[in-house]
Design a protein that fits this description.
The chain is mainly alpha-helical. It has two helices and no strands.
């Protein structure tokens, strides 16, 4: 039982840390140049948007 609690604690910590790191990453500057694209911003935005969409309530409203 202790192994399951430890595993649950470690996994929840990893998920929290990864989501915090995804939100803390810098985005590309708005001007073109050397740092335009190819640094993983699309991946970070995809992860943060998909997580927020999956956490939303997907139930339909009750009918009257």
């Amino acid at each position: 039982m202790n192994a399951r609690r430890l595993l649950a604690f470690v996994l929840s910590g990893v998920i929290l840390l990864l989501s915090a790191m995804a939100y803390a990453s810098n985005v590309d500057p708005s001007w073109g140049g050397l740092y335009d694209d190819d640094d993983g911003d699309a991946v970070v935005l995809f992860i943060t948007v998909s997580v927020s969409l999956s956490l939303s309530d997907s139930r339909s409203p009750p009918s009257l």
